[in-house]
Specification:
The protein is an all-alpha fold. It is 76% helix and 0% strand. The chain has one domain. GO terms for molecular function: fluoride channel activity; metal ion binding. It comes from Actinopolyspora erythraea.
Length: 136
């Protein structure tokens, strides 16, 4: 199990690093990669939670994806460090907006991810060839 978490963490951290390279950093833009990975990670964890609850799965899938990949991809400490950096550079309003925006986007992202996964599972469970899954 430890190896699954470690491999997942390495993958998630590498993905987060890739996002940080792809998004702008100039003029205080360093918060955008962290905001992006945290909101996207929340969306995925919402979907992942529903999929794990509703489907059969390998016993290492949750530690690999949930703790490892998503744990390595998202970063609460980075979120707070970014806000602290904004405060340290005399940008308290920007720091407050960043903290608030992250929460306002991340919480609905979890709900949307769960709803999407639930909808996809419902659709996949319908009988083939019918619109409602009932008798033709």
């Amino acid at each position: 199990m430890l190896a699954a978490v470690a491999l997942g963490g390495a993958l998630g951290s590498t993905l987060r690093y890739g996002v940080s390279l792809a998004l702008p950093h100039a003029d205080g833009g360093a918060v955008w990669p962290t905001l992006t990975v945290n909101v996207l990670g929340c969306f995925v964890i919402g979907a992942f939670t529903v999929l794990l609850a509703e489907t059969e799965r390998h016993h290492l899938l949750r530690p690999f994806l949930g703790v490892g990949v998503l744990g390595g991809f998202t970063t609460f400490s980075g979120y707070l460090a970014d806000a602290g950096g904004l405060l340290a550079t005399g940008q308290p309003l920007y720091a407050a907006l960043y903290l608030l925006l992250t929460v306002l986007l991340a919480l609905p992202a979890v709900v949307c991810g769960a709803a999407l996964a639930g909808g996809l599972l419902t659709r996949s469970r319908r009988a083939p060839g019918t619109a409602t899954g009932g008798e033709p």
